[in-house]
Write a structure and sequence with these properties.
heterodimer, A: 640 residues, alpha+beta, Flavocytochrome C3, Chain A, domain 1, 5-stranded antiparallel sheet, 21 strands, B: 256 residues, Ubiquitin-like (UB roll), 5-stranded mixed sheet, two-stranded antiparallel ribbon, 8 helices
Chain lengths: 640, 256
């Protein structure tokens, strides 16, 4: 199938306005005749469900947590970008667009990113009107701060809890529609399949996680707003429940998966403390404004933070400042992460595991005084102390990179529709706006842009085209078939009764992905990883042990269902990384570098990889969706 | 570390629960409390026993999904969420009792998992500003004093975990409800519906079976996000003022 990104013709700045005019509308009186399913209630899902309910559609929304308010958007700390230019410092829609394209290392779509920058200003207005308590100046206007990858101050924030406040804003709008009867909410409900009839998405099959009941829901369209797949690495900054299952089941039903190997590794996370580690915690990137990153020049095995002061300055290697004198400790996330890995690979890492580098505030405290540092970073220092037991005011922090965000996801066209008509993907679960690397404070922007300001227009066009009579009832045999396949799989999982726990196998997968498909990737390593993943898959389906039954709350079964999909996704990520023999953004192929820096190859890889599922055990087919840049000229990024 | 755990086990809402004792000798002081339970569960699964079910998700102290009543205190000995509590807060050899939130409005689902959907229903009753997507004024059109915005943010920081209810001898939800009422009562955007909002949210709170507030302040003492009981005072004021005002508007006729 040839991919049609449906990017409208015309000048960049007018594409979205013209497109909105050309989209078909659904008569207000007819909207109530349409049913829409929204899976996931994070920023993208909650904002989409609320906005569509307001328009008059009948919405069913699903989340696997006990409440829509738990979605992992809630954990975003830093802020949300918008081209308001409230600071009079030269910002504009075009500048936000340009920064995002460049930050993504020229692997995002121009038209999508420009639309994102355009609607960014509406998002702030909308959230303020909902009562989101953004930070304010003394005069009562909205406050801004600057963030990585930008030279203007355009980030809006609510303390270190911006994601929480934006999500609670969207949750409140969702609640209003639940109260109005326009949205029916299904908590503790997990999507296990998309039902496709006559080539169109017609509904989903879910499992009620409390009773275990497998249920069918039909609709005119299905929106997946199910987040990223960082947990394929087992350890990541994602929530424990974050998973790829909904997106992966959609992929198996015909939705192409785009750029799966584009993952973002965040440089400043708290290092792993032992085998019991269940997740990793991010420390805000802002710490690199004042902290200096270093390791000893000579390896010092097991060096503890409390003994760091005993290493004289002359014996320290401030490696980022040394290699990148102009950007120093403020190089982008991908560069900072890779260099931390290099020094640890050389054996110069610190801490009990040797997989950590110091982030030292001693100089900043000496220069500015403790009270200044406390005012800037007090809550982060407290959080660090609570988790590690070390006091960063008196000794350096230890940090190490961790998986944070996935730029890849389901392939969508300009209307956010996947390759399955009627099936849409919004927010982190699509691939479209961040290219090969996401800039700070743009994930929240994209989730809300898709939900509040894109899908309410583009979905209407599809619905008006098919008409309200074009719906399939849950009595259709396709639903029964889907229920059978979901139930069979569940019974198979429960019947294995092997010797390994789900977490054990998930950890093995994660370690493999981290080692060979993490910060640095090579052909030999990736080929090895593919073999290991196939072995893990075999082991999983013959030796996993799940206690309990399918008709009750069974969290081991939930995990097993998700890990089975992560294993298959892991293999596709490796295939994608093997195919892309260039380095770009977060994807670093060791074979493609110049003077130790990432080397992009626009001649051969100026495209989005879109993978088509070909059946169990079959090699997936690669489709190349060519990127066309009319306005920006790609250049090699340099931070030296 | 070696610990003795007394954990509440309950197969389902309809079955009878009981404490079971587990000896856990694979505990490191660097583990979070939930990681300690993960390791316990891994051992149970290997033995073919059902793991202890508990709610959790972000493990960063912000989603509000984790709970646990630990040694008689919601979220344990520190004023933080259970996911941010580490085993170094306990002594080697200690006995730890772990229970679910205990409140009639939070029925047990299984083991340590409870149903907090009552909180969602209270929010649905009025925890929003009635504004549709689009057609709103510019973000800077209405200036808001920094002090007011900060105070609204203090209230809005509530994570909806339910520790306030679990801490309260009456299982009152006043701190939770008042945090949302306060956020909107402070901000200009919340004013048009302030009276209706407090009335409906309080009515829903009562319908759900939460108890009354007697100003014991246990909720404030245990809240992992330091939500203050001044919010309760503000909600009471809002509530009484709504009682004396008729906010309902009757519309008759249709225009031209």
């Amino acid at each position: 199938m040839a991919l049609d990104s449906k990017i409208p013709a015309g000048s960049l700045a007018e594409k979205w306005s013209k497109h909105k005019f050309n989209l078909k509308l659904v008569n207000p009186a007819n909207k109530r005749k349409y049913d829409v399913i929204v899976v996931g209630t994070g920023l993208a899902g909650a904002s989409a469900a609320a906005s569509l309910g307001e328009l008059g559609y009948n919405v069913k929304a699903f989340c696997f947590q006990d409440s829509p308010r738990r979605a992992h958007s809630i954990a975003a700390q830093g802020g949300i970008n918008a081209a308001k230019n409230y600071q009079n410092d030269g910002d504009s829609v075009y500048r936000l667009f340009y920064d995002t394209i460049k930050g993504g290392d020229y692997r995002a779509r121009e038209a999508n990113v420009h639309r994102l920058a355009e609607v960014s200003v509406n998002i702030i207005d909308q959230c303020v009107a909902q009562g989101v308590p953004f930070a304010r100046e003394y005069g009562g206007t909205l406050a801004n701060r600057s963030f990585g990858g930008a030279q203007v101050s355009r980030t809006f924030y609510a303390r270190g809890q911006t994601g929480q406040q934006l999500l609670l804003g969207a949750y409140s709008a969702l609640n209003r529609q639940i109260a109005n009867g326009k949205v029916t909410m299904y908590n503790r409900s997990e999507m296990l399949d998309v039902v496709v009839v006559d080539g169109k998405a017609r509904g989903i099959v879910t499992r009620d996680l409390v009773t275990g009941k497998i249920e069918s829901h039909s609709a005119h369209a299905v929106l997946l707003c199910t987040g990223g797949y960082g947990n394929v690495f087992f350890l990541s900054t994602n929530a424990k429940g974050s998973n790829v299952t909904a997106a992966w089941r959609a992929h198996k039903k015909g939705a192409y998966f785009a750029n799966p190997c584009f993952t973002q590794i965040h440089p400043t996370c708290i290092p792993v403390s032992g085998d019991h580690q269940s997740k990793l915690t991010l420390m805000s990137e802002s710490l690199r404004n004042d902290g200096r990153v270093w390791v000893p020049k000579e390896a010092k095995k097991g060096l503890k933070a409390k003994d760091a002061a005993s290493i004289p300055d002359t014996d320290r290697d401030y490696f980022l400042e040394r290699k990148y004198p102009s950007f120093g400790n403020l190089v982008p996330r991908d560069v900072a992460s890779r260099n931390a890995k290099y020094v640890c690979d050389e054996g110069r890492g610190v801490g009990a595991t040797g997989l950590a580098v110091f982030l030292d505030f001693a100089d900043a405290i000496k220069r500015d005084g403790r009270s200044v540092i406390e005012a800037k970073y007090g809550n982060l220092f407290d959080m660090y102390k609570q988790i590690t037991g070390d006091d960063p005011y008196t000794m350096p922090m230890m940090i190490y990179p961790a998986v944070h965000y996935t730029m890849g996801g389901l392939w969508v066209d300009y209307n956010l529709m996947t390759t399955v008509p009627g099936l849409y993907a919004l927010g982190e679960c699509n691939f479209s706006d961040h290219g090969a690397n996401r800039l700070g404070a743009s994930a929240l922007m994209q989730g809300l842009a898709d939900g509040y300001f894109v899908i309410p227009y583009t979905l209407g066009d599809y619905l008006a085209t098919i008409g309200w009579k074009d719906k399939v009832d849950t009595n259709h045999p396709a639903f029964a078939e889907s229920i059978k396949s979901v139930t069979d799989r569940q019974e198979k999982l429960l019947s294995i009764k092997g010797k390994k726990t789900v977490d054990q196998l998930h950890r093995e997968l994660g370690l493999t992905m981290w080692e060979y498909c993490g910060m640095s990737r090579s052909e030999a390593g990736l080929k090895k990883a593919k073999q290991i993943i196939q072995d893990i898959k075999k082991e999983f389906w013959t030796n996993v042990n799940i206690v309990g039954s399918g008709n009750e709350l069974n969290m081991e079964l939930e995990k097993a269902n998700r890990v089975a999909d992560f294993i298959e996704l892991g293999e596709l990520m490796v295939d994608d990384a093997l195919n892309r023999t260039e380095s770009c953004g977060g994807h670093f192929r060791e074979e493609s570098q110049m003077d130790g820096e990432a080397l992009r190859n626009d001649k051969d890889f100026f495209y989005v990889s879109a993978w088509e599922y070909k059946g169990e055990g079959e090699q997936q087919a690669l489709h190349k969706d060519a990127l066309e840049y009319e306005f920006v000229k790609p250049t090699q990024r340099s931070y030296k | 570390m070696k610990l003795t755990l007394k954990i509440w086990r309950q197969k389902s809402n309809s079955s009878k629960g009981e404490f079971k004792t587990y000896i856990h000798d694979h505990v490191s002081p660097d583990m979070s409390f939930l990681e300690m339970l993960d390791v316990l569960n891994e051992g149970l699964v290997k033995k073919g026993e059902e793991p202890v079910h508990f709610d959790h998700d972000c493990r960063e102290g912000i989603c509000g999904m984790c709970s646990l009543y630990i040694n008689g205190r919601p979220h344990g000995p520190l004023q933080t969420t259970t996911c941010q509590l580490h085993m170094r807060s306990f002594k080697d050899g200690e006995t730890i009792t772990i229970e679910p939130w205990r409140a009639a409005a939070f029925p047990v689902v299984k083991d340590l998992v409870v149903d907090r959907s009552a909180f969602d229903r209270i929010q649905q009753a009025g925890g929003y500003v009635s504004v549709n997507t689009g057609g709103v004024p510019d973000g800077n059109a209405i200036p808001i004093a920094k002090k007011i915005a900060d105070e609204a943010m203090d209230a809005a920081a509530c994570i909806g975990c339910g520790a306030c209810v679990a801490a309260c001898k009456n299982a009152s939800a006043m701190l939770f409800v008042s945090a949302k009422v306060s956020q909107y009562a402070l901000l200009p955007q919340g004013q048009p519906e302030s009276k209706e909002r407090v009335d409906k949210m309080v009515a829903q709170m009562d319908d759900e079976g939460f108890g009354a507030c007697t100003n014991t302040k246990a909720c404030e003492a245990e809240c992992p996000k330091s939500i203050k009981i001044t919010n309760i005072a503000r909600m009471n004021r809002e509530y009484y003022s709504s009682m004396f005002t008729n906010y309902e508007v009757t519309v008759s006729g249709g225009g031209d």
